Predict the 3D structure of the following.
Amino acid sequence: MAKETITGPNLMGPITYQELPIGCTFIGKPPFTISTGMWRYARPEMRKKNSPCTEACLIGQDIRKWIKFLRKGEIDKACDAVFEENPFPGIVSRVCSHPCEDACNRKQYDDALIVHDIERYISDWAILNKYKIAPLALKDKKCNIGIIGSGPAGLACAYFLCKTGHLVTVYEALSVTGGMLRTGIPEYRLPKNIVDEEIKRIQDMGVKIETNIRVGTDISFNTLKEKHDSLFIAQGFEISSHLNIEEGDFDKVLYGLPFLKQINSGQLPEFSGSVAIIGGGNVAVDCARSAKRINNPDVQLFCLESVDEIPAFPDEISEAMEEGIVFNFSVAPQNIEIANGVNQIKFIKVLSEKSVLSEKSDDRKILSFSPIKGTEFYKKFDYVIIAVGQTSNIDYLSKAVDICGNKIVIDDQCMTSENGIFAGGDIAEKVLSVPAAIASGKRAAIFMDQYLSGKKRLSEAKPGDKSQVMSMREYLGNDDSKNKPSRQQTIEFERINTAYFDRQIKEKTEKITVSERIKSFSEVNLTLSEKKMLSEADRCFTCGDCSACDTCLIFCPDMAINKNRDTLNNDIDYQFCKGCGICVNECPTGYIDLEKEK
Amino acid sequence: MAKQMMLTGNYAAAYGVKLADVDVVPIYPITPQTSIIEKIVELIDKKEIDAEFIPAESEHSVMAMAVSAQATGARCFTASSAQGLVYMHENLFVASGCRLPVVMCMVCRALGTPQGLGYDFGDALDQRDTSWIQIYLEDAQEILDMVIQAYKIAEDKKVLLPVAIAYEGFAISHYLEPVTIPDREMVKTFLPAYTPHVALSDVENPVQMGYCDMNGSLMTEIRYQQHEAMENAKSVIEKVDLEYGKIFGRSYGGHIEKIMMEDAQIAILAMGSIVSTSRIAVTTLREKGLKIGLLKLRVFRPFPWEKIIDITKNLKMLIVLDRDVSIGSTGIVYSEVAGALYNLEKRPLLLNYILGLGGRDITVEMIVDIVSKSINDTKNGKVQSHVNWYGVRGL
């Protein structure tokens, strides 16, 4: 065993040359220990931080985590990671505007990762391999929850509540499930078999969906209240808004939602000649592209917004333009009339003005449009489709909960004016996309579970303060709580040590050719091959998390970073770390911070 | 069985390393020592030597590796010259401070600038303060024998200082000579395995080597220990030389070899290849009737001042030939000899000749000329010119 005390004389005293051990040698442990850690004034700390993709994601997905599993070849674990936060990856990957990609740090280096294609690959795998989700048996007391509407908000809420152990029944007015997923978004963008598979998966989990039940008609709201411990209203907007202008012959003037619903049910209307689409949102672009696919008419879209302001997703607009749809920006329709048996629309050019309103901490720019006198012009079209917005009819709820205009009033925890009744999705919040609806459903599920457990109400906990995203994995305590991502810190590009990454442009999503596209409603985008998916996954910087590259271990001049044999993490030995900061500087992912020594 | 081979000085050193059963050889090439390490690596490859060789990135690292390996209990060897030797200068102090018995061949070459490959003792003598034992050799046989003896001297428990075997590059290192290679088993009985007094690899007895002495409270004592070791080395060197002579039949006279000194009145003192040339010069001069002798100074550190006093005190004149110079002062060997003789009541007239720098050839005629010049100089019984630069064009 090692000697604990020094042998021989005390070197600190007046020792003679005969007594002094030769060769400047101490045998045994010296009486004092000077270790390099003693004079440290700065200290490296290994701390997981938020990645910008997760912060930007409306659903709060841990994208970094799935990519880590994919790179290790563990696609099943990647799949588990996806389903922690997102019940519908197949749907979301096809219809999301992917803000994660705009935020990706790699964008500032070469190209952003094509995250949505990676998510799609995982979802395709899940469908192919019949991936199943098991509800967690967490609850001693299972509550009985009723959800109105089987759109993305309602189904997401159902998924999360079922996952936390409750019994859920979803009431759907139509004979088909999915809401806008089924009746709104066209097949070439979101194939219905994907919707079928993903909804079936949550039904297999235990969620009951009862179709052909319209609340207020087939069953009263009060009946539902009595039947269930808590309700979530997510019936959405199913009515197209009208324009405040003169409309001519009703046969040839169609509205966005009914038009899309008809196409999605398999009935294609007759088109020939030319079609005008009024509107600048995704519904308008969906209508335009759908119309184009029916006998290839001449399709033109007219919107109030300028090219920078148009609210439809950029990917949709560019694909629409490729397909030959002409976009006319900054115009307003003034009236539609029949002239010589043909629809004629009078347009005027408009100027858009922005006024900035501060609401809570949101900077919301409201656009107002003023017509420019003398710029009127006429255009002839065979058909007109009006897609200028959606709305609801919630008269049947007017006595049950507080309503403001076409929306239900909810507080910051998704609860309506009635205790135990929650609402979300289009009907209660400003929801601009499918992932936003899913996020709304998730948020409500968390607050509902809280309410039903009788726990103290959660304060508004957000992973990033920018949006009201809530994380299921944090709520359930699944997130590696010893290394919780610091909520305040998201890794910026400057923290990434790009010397460790070779430049590599992104893989391109494969699409079918334009001529093929406009002939049918076949899906436009194709799934990446495994090789391309892995090549993309390899480009991930792993912002703010350890990527197990061992660079810190190799560089440490004091050999003070060592692999922990149990956890396989690299641990810093603070007895010897002198705080030089080389590991902080070299770490490719910005995982290590340098702080003042306490 | 002893066998004879034609070997250069460098190859003889390599065979010495083979016989000494060395464990670790950190290496870095530099002319004129490269063929030592090339031969060693060749012998390792042929499995004639069982050792690790480590190609380092510089001589500084070579000595660092030698020190570290020696500290764990391995017997180490390395070689260097000129610029490389000076590059490892810092670590030479570490080796001697830690009292590690490393053995190194210093194959002497003139220090640049001006850069050159010619031989003189400037590089080896420049290391005289590093607390290494320094022995200067004359031929290949002596090199082989001294490499073996060096380990015995260095590893002696009363010594424990590193040893440098120094000889001139090209003149000795590259000269083919017949060399007797002693029998391996006999060398094993003469030189047993290295048993360190402490070793870093002994995990049962943890050791810290080379600690700091921040306020100088131990420096004097440590240095005195090294001084004492050097003093002990004086007798150990003699003892080992005699023992080697008894077993292998070759003895070299210890610190100083005396040639034709019995009734000498004048003597020449030199190191290395000058001695070979001087042997002929002195024989020639003896034939002419001059009572002249030759002293081959072998051990420069520890400087054998007692021996020098003893040998030279009754001489009339002593000529020190320096194949080196300390600019701003005199030849280095001369200054050491002068220091040794200073306190004698009766001492010889002392002259210094600086010559052969950068490998410039020293001939028998030159030495004869130097002797006659010296005699001329001291006609009045006094030395007119103590320090003389010989053969400078323009002087």
Q: What stands out?
A: The first helix of chain A runs from residue 52 to 56. Chain A touches chain B at residues 1-3, 11, 15-17, 20, 22-30 (CB under 8 Å).
